[in-house]
Amino acid sequence: MAGTTTAERGERRREPAGAPGPAPSWRDRLPAPPRPRTLVAGGAVAALLAAGVIWLLYGSAWLRVDEVGVTGTRVLGEDEVRRAAAVPPALPLASVDTDELEARVRAELPRVESVEADRDWPHRVTLKVTERTAVLILAERGRFVEVDASGTRFATLPKAPESVPLLELEPSTEESARSSLRRFGRDRLVAEAVRVAGDIPDAIARDTRAVKVRTFDAFSLELEDGRTVVWGSPEEGEAKARTLRALMKATPKARHFDVSVPSAPASSAS
Question: Which of 35, 98, 239, 259 has the most CB atoms around it within 10 Å of its CB?
Fold first, then answer.
């Protein structure tokens, strides 16, 4: 068979008009780099926006503190909390350090258990206060100190409030009792009395006039109507609370109750 002629080979080399050329490479598909003028203009716009935001937050009069709100107070006055917070008037709201503000209120007002400071845009700071609640009153040098459930002494009063049990530390004159006091110390006994007060059933706690302490193993309660409860040591508080509720229900006319050993309680009419 004859091979292709020179004319045929020439025809193959010629491409028809309008035929697609080679596919572009990935480099050809990349967008053109921005021109220097475009970069400069974009940077200037971003800088102006940033400067505007900074001025709005710190330089304008629109976002400055003009009110300090206080919520959650029971004994403290709202103005008292505001004075402790000491927020400078017209301070830019963005400049308010809420952590520092909270620490200042707690340091100035021991009655405050916790405080949460919030920025309320555009003009207000809000202080949400939780006050401590006294579970015992401790008599010291003719005045009365409120003690909360954590054992913190947070306020001194000229007169004991009637709604809070009085803690009466009555060390026995016996040598064993004095030895117990030296061993555990006054602060430890106060802390244990707080523990006992926390274990007293709510209905009975409302009628409790005093928590008395002679030694670490000799705690007792005095109720409003003259009834007494021998509690014993601070141990097994939950079991003693359950036993006391049941004992009072079973012997409603009793005047004296002993739950020092909760598995063997006792009550008597006199």
Answer: 259
Q: What number of CA atoms fall less than 13 Å from residue 249's CA on the CB side?
A: 8
Q: Are 152 and 145 in contact (CB under 8 A)?
A: no
d(CA 244, CA 248): 6
pTM assigned to the model: 0.71
**Local structure of 69: helix, strand or coil:** strand
**Domains delineated in the chain:** 67-131 (3.10.20.310), 134-268 (3.40.50.10960)
How far is residue 4 from each of residues 1, 9, 14, 16, 44, measured CA to CA in Å?
Answer: 10, 7, 15, 20, 69
- Find residue 36's DSSP bridge partners: none
131-172: pLDDT as tens digits:
999 999 999 888 999 999 999 999 999 999 888 999 998 765
